[in-house]
Amino acid sequence: MDRFEKPVDFKIIGLIFFGRPPNIAILDCYLKKNLVTNGGFLDEVHFVVNTDKEQDIKYLDKLVKTSKLYTKVILPELGYKSVWEHSVEPEHMYIKIDDDMVYFDDNAIANVVYTKLHHPDSFAVVANLVNSPETGWLHFHFGAIHSYLPETVPPPKDTSSASLGPKAWRASALPIWNEAGEMSFPVTMDKSDDGSVLEADNPAAPPFKGHRWLPLPDPEKNIYKTPMAKSEYNAYGPDWKSWALAAQVHYSLLENIEKNQLHLYHYGTSSPSSSEGVWNMAFSRMNINFMAIWGKDVLDNAPFEGPDDEHELSVNIPQKLNRPVLVNTHAVAAHFSFRTQHELYDTDLLSRYRAYANEMICTKDNQIASPKGG
Questions:
Q1: How far apart (Å, rounded) are the C-alpha atoms in residues 79 and 109?
Q2: For the chain, how far is it from start to end, CA to CA, in angstroms?
Q3: Within 13 Å of residue 64, how many CA atoms lie on the same side as its CB?
Q4: CA 141, CA 29: separation in Å to the nearest integer?
Q5: What would the pLDDT profile of 160-189 be if each residue is shown by its tens digit?
Q6: Which residues contact 322 (CB under 8 A, 6 or more apart)?
Q7: Alpha carbon distances (Å) from 116 to 17, 46, 275
Q8: 295-353, pLDDT tens digit by residue?
Q9: Do 263 and 270 meet the contact criterion of CB atoms below 8 Å apart?
Q10: For residue 22, what are the CA distances in angstroms to 18, 135, 335?
């Protein structure tokens, strides 16, 4: 893929909404790789403190000391509205990145910048998000999702380290799913939106802590027996509520990365450049976990009318200005979880993304340590 050259007449600033240290250790490697000092597009990275937890803030204090281009931003009050109103300047382009982004491809930042500049009437440009209700259904129907189901009993202690453990991320090392009983896993929508988790005896709950998802035999036929068969093009549907759909799309991404087939995500209006494929959200809600936007466009429309910054920035303001949000489908980025998908932490996915980052993204002196007990 050709690489769009970095513009030099304005700053490109990474804007990180900080609040979850366990996830941001992975993101840190991607950010450092994309700094201008390493040949990337990010002139600076601003970590906006959106937490009052003292231990987390101390973690951030240590993190910002690891790069001269890292800055900590303190808000006058917590909340997403405050983040936007007090942490951007009009002349810069911002790449807003959530702190639970666990993967983005090498050209993702360059590609969203490219699309924002080549489509100036757009209000913002969002990456092609893995684990998003707006894009999950599309990924399923364009063939980027593969057949997986969870293992229901812990694997043997002599399981290969390539398949399980702190260095495991490759799908090719996983055994084929071979469980007793029906080939299926329930998807429930009967769950609160407040971040609560399913009770252990719920059939849709994770089978055990640290479990894997395994590829199915006869995958093309059996994909209709997997959770993603319930996917909907619906901002509040199963792709948002279900941890099981999220687990399947994450495992599918890791398979696609290993097989060098990210092109499976490249749908949308074609472009003369390989830097983009465009999907117009047409004023429907879109997750803004990884987004390019001009500071001026934010400030010209602040303060927001409502508390939901995502709805304001992807629906209300774009519709008022008649400037839609675009998705660049060639910028693939993985968002780990929504508050409705906390059960994902009972899979081994964070370990897999950490293993991939350590092997492929992080430098030798910036390896991510496995957390205690996991």
A1: 25
A2: 37
A3: 17
A4: 32
A5: 999 999 999 999 999 999 998 899 999 988
A6: none
A7: 21, 20, 12
A8: 999 999 988 888 899 999 999 999 999 999 999 999 999 999 999 999 999 999 999 99
A9: no
A10: 11, 25, 14
Tokens standing for 246?
């999220």
Q: 303: cis peptide before it, omega within 30°?
A: yes
Q: 269 has which bridge partners?
A: 278
Question: In the chain, what is the greatest distance between 2 CA atoms, to the nearest angstrom?
Answer: 61
Q: Is the pTM of this model over 0.70?
A: yes
Q: Which DSSP symbol is given to 34?
A: T
Encoding tokens for residue 369? 């340590």
The whole-angstrom separation of Cα 255 and Cα 102 is: 15
Contact 229, 189 (CB under 8 A): no
The vertex-228 CA angle with 151 and 109, nearest 5°, equals 100
Q: What angle do CA 208, 213, 217 make, to 5 degrees?
A: 130
> Which of 300, 354, 290 shows the shortest CA–CA distance to 323?
300
Beta-bridge mates of residue 13 = 44, 94
Question: What six digits make up the tokens of 294?
Answer: 């001009």
β-pairing, 44-49 vs 70-73, is parallel
Tokens of 288: 């803004």
